[in-house]
Amino acid sequence: xxSPTLERTNVVVENASGDQMKVYGKLRCKIEMKGIxxxxxxxxxxxTSLMGLxxxxxxEEMAFHMDMMIAEVKAAPNSDLxxxxxxxxxxxxxxxxxxxxxxxxxx
Length: 107
Description:
Elements: E1 13-14, E2 20-21, E3 25-33, E4 36-44, H1 53-58, H2 60-71, H3 78-88
Antiparallel strand pairs: 1-2, 3-4
């Protein structure tokens, strides 16, 4: 890897929980994962387990598995979702305060 130059970046990195991670900078480097070689940026953080989407997309096998996970997420149309929620939790759609008995919000 030699001594790559650390470049400034204003990229915002979040972990899987959605918490932001401090990024000290980025550097361009060659990447090899599972025998697949590519180039990309490595973001320098205090953690050693950071792997970005750019790296995952650069590896065909990992990209395939990521696409499979994404393909499994299906969103129902809002009208269907609303009806399902009304059937499952009818008390939340009733008029009045319902379970909220301590405070009342007025506009």
